[in-house]
Model the fold of this input.
Amino acid sequence: MKEIDYYKNNEILENSYYQIPQELFVNSLYKEKLNSDSKILYAFLLDRLSLSQKNHWFDEFGRIYLIFTREEVQDKLCLFEKTVTKAFKQLADVNLIEEKRQGLGKPNLIYVGKIQHEEIGNFADTENIQV
Done:
């Protein structure tokens, strides 16, 4: 029998995943209004919410915010500045994010909005959605 291959400290991210909500691909509010870059960015922003919670980054109303600069997004997603700007704009246009300026030289605070769910008319519409 082969010996067990244990995870090492530097291998822990092997089983960490970004989750992209399926509704971004089927809901008419988002399907054609968000490109793939925007959908992936939204997944990254959702993932960052847990870090913000650990850091106690919330405002006076209890809303969690995060800081994720355009430069960080460019680096993480290997995208150009214009593409990142477009992705943020698309998410803002469909109310999935809101940004608050902090002032000169400080990064924007990003509030992540929840997906607005569509009423599904009949079950035939859900046949192709995998759960």
Observations:
- The chain is about 35% helix and 10% strand.
